[in-house]
Structures are given as C-alpha cells and as structure tokens.
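Late entry, evening session. Most of the bench is empty. Finally got around to the prediction I had been postponing all week. Sequence below, unchanged from the version circulated by S.P.
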Amino acid sequence: MKKIGKLHLALALAAAVVVVGYHGESIAQATLQIGGDSANYGVHNIRGGFVPDPKEISVVSGGSLNAASMGYGSGCTGWVTSQPDVIVKYTNPDDDLLRFFVRASGDTTLVINDARGRWHCNDDAPGGGTNPMVTVSNPPRGQYDVWIGSYERGQTVRGKLYVTELRSETP
C-alpha cells in the first residue's frame, strides 16, 4: 500500500505542476486583449488613401503589464494595459505600408497585433530618439490592436499616436 500511496502522490504532484504550468502560460498569453471592440483612446476607422495623413490620436502611455514577459517577440517591451490603447479598423489598403509611430516627451514603446494576428513591437525608432515606430508592409485590411507602453514601470507619458501611409512620416 505504501508504494502505491507514494506513486499516487508523485503522480498527483506531477499533474499539479503540469496544470499550473499550462494555466500560467494561458494567463500570460491572455493578458493583452485582441480582437475586441473597445480601446482606451477609441476605435478609429481608417480607409486607404485617408486624409489628413497622418491621422493623429492623443494617448497616454503605460500600464501594469510587462510586454517583455509575454513572449510576443524581440523588441516587445514596456508597460501596457490589457485593453488596447487604440483600435484601428483599416479598409481598402491604398499603399504598400501602414506605419504607426508615437511622438511624446518621454520614453514610449509600441506593441501592435496586426490584422493577420502577427505581433510588431518597437522601443526606439532609428533617428526617433525614444519614440517608437512600427511599419507594416503590404498591410491587410482588418483590425490593428495598438498598445502604447511606457519604458519605465509606473510612468505615464502624454503623447500622440500617428497612423500614416506615407514613407516620409517618421517620429
């Protein structure tokens, strides 16, 4: 009986570790809400060839979730909220790129889930100082969930998110 009791205990502990491991992983992946209909700074319908270009959206960065620990890929960093800051619903793509960038007085980051479900992240754009920029090549129509993170935990930074189809527009 003791051998069976120890075996059952060992199996139960192993099962608990597996369940906790899988449960913990699903929590980490579910922290950013994608595909929803609400965002901290609004849902914006943008049609290819839009004017004025760039579209400007006032935002405040930051949140309590560390994007670097979520496994969305290299360059994903910053502190964000679970709900997207901005949702862009993009129709009738008119160009070969869709660019997102932030201009702010502090260090911000971008985390974007595009219409194909791919993750794009950036901390500091080349030549942009501490302002991030993400360019999606051959952008499909659909929903883009956008988070503006703060590089420093507990910090919030006021700024503007810009959405453009123009290569000349950068932070």
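Two things to note before I forget:
Residues 6-30 have pLDDT under 50 and may be disordered.
The CA atoms of residues 124 and 132 lie 5 Å apart.
Will write this up properly tomorrow.
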